[in-house]
Amino acid sequence: MLMRMTVLGTGYLGATHAACMAELGHDVLGVDVDPSKLSKLQAGDVPFYEPGLAEVLKRNIDAGHLRFTSSYEEAAEFAEVHFLAVGTPQKRGEYAADLQYVDSVIESIGRLITRPTVIFGKSTVPVGTAERLGRRARELAPADVEVEVAWNPEFLREGHAVEDTLRPDRLVIGIDKTRPSRAEELARQIYEDTIASGTPFVLTNLATAELVKASANAFLATKISFINAIAEVCEAAGGDVTELADAIGHDDRIGRKFLNAGIGFGGGCLPKDIRAFMARAGELGADQALTFLREVDNINMRRRTQVVELARQACGGGFLGTRVAVLGAAFKPESDDVRDSPALNVAGQIQLQGAAVSVYDPKAIENSRKLFPTLDYRTSLREACEGADVVLVLTEWSEFRQLNPSELAGLVRSRRIIDGRNCLDATQWVEAGWRYRGLGRKMQADWSV
Ligand code: UDX
Predict the structure, then answer these.
(1) Which end of the chain is more exposed for a tag (fewer CB within 10 A), N or C?
(2) What is the pTM of this model?
(3) Please, which pLDDT band fits residue 298 given cuts at 50, 70 and 90?
(4) The one catalytic residue among 269, 315, 385, 423
């Protein structure tokens, strides 16, 4: 059934959700407090790089299914169904999530409610938040009006956001089972087509829905750190972590996905979410249960320093006076996001230790410059590699995977390459006269030769 709804917060998650809900045929109003973001979106411009999103956005604005506003009055007037999609960043100097944006949305919309309303939270929040927000929304709304806060966590991956929203692996709806609830019925209407196409619909209580999201991200982070820990052992023992991952991945119970060893995970979600999960477990008196996530975080951060060390060895033991080419700045390919990006972090560390670092990324240069203005950004891969003592591939963009080692050979000062994502064909590079070093792999070059 076609419905009217708002999406409160139009960042990565909200803009994608708003456009995709309109694509499903609903009438959608996107709401944000940032006028520059709104005017871009209203003009059909996506303020970040996400393949396919601009087309969905434009199509639905033109069809009249989607528009944007900064007015919460208009939002409360427009619909009885609201999706809450604002950010929950890590608090400064603490592990916990900062809930100020989530709280402020409830304060703004809550006091404007005049008719029965359901708010579906999509943001990743510490367990217990949905129940608290529900209480607050009921306090703010008139006493005789039913207001419900349900939780509908989002599992989208950057770079696949449209596909993940339109065709998710599962839909999870958490409701307050102690009160009368319309959320299940509404969610089944909103996602009618998605459910009809076979997507599992999982109904839980509020706490479980919040924990599903935190646990999913914790599991993914653990899987990556597991293989990176094994990569360290492979390095010590002369094994090859890529072959190992292929071999264990054949076991259905393990699976090959998220077993790519390299410089580790970054981005706006996994690092902050595992930290917020630990902080919340601590508040609940269950901190021991999640101490392993501290180790997951440690293994992950250690990858970055190890790559810096490898690069130092490649430069003859010190960075002073050397030139280092860094290919990749985004936290993963098909994204311009550099939040907690391992690639940019490594580039920064090497620069701070005295090398001249040239960085190239197909999409993330502009964002990198804002975060780390002192690095030398180049507009092409070739420019970045000119005169380099070592080349580091730190994000597995297809442009880098397809690199021809012989072509690059003439540009660099020394044919040394570190494959921080194990995404290159090592044999091809070695045959073209390069000294190649992957992470946790055989074919480890002896830099001193
Ligand atoms: C993640 C979750 O996948 C998604 O479900 C959730 O909604 C938000 O957080 P995202 O941050 O977009 O999504 O990226 P993801 O594809 O999960 O990658 C996260 C990081 O892990 C990247 O830095 C990536 O390079 C790294 N990674 C991933 C590895 O190092 N090895 C792997 O095998 C997989």
Answers:
(1) C
(2) 0.96
(3) very high
(4) 269
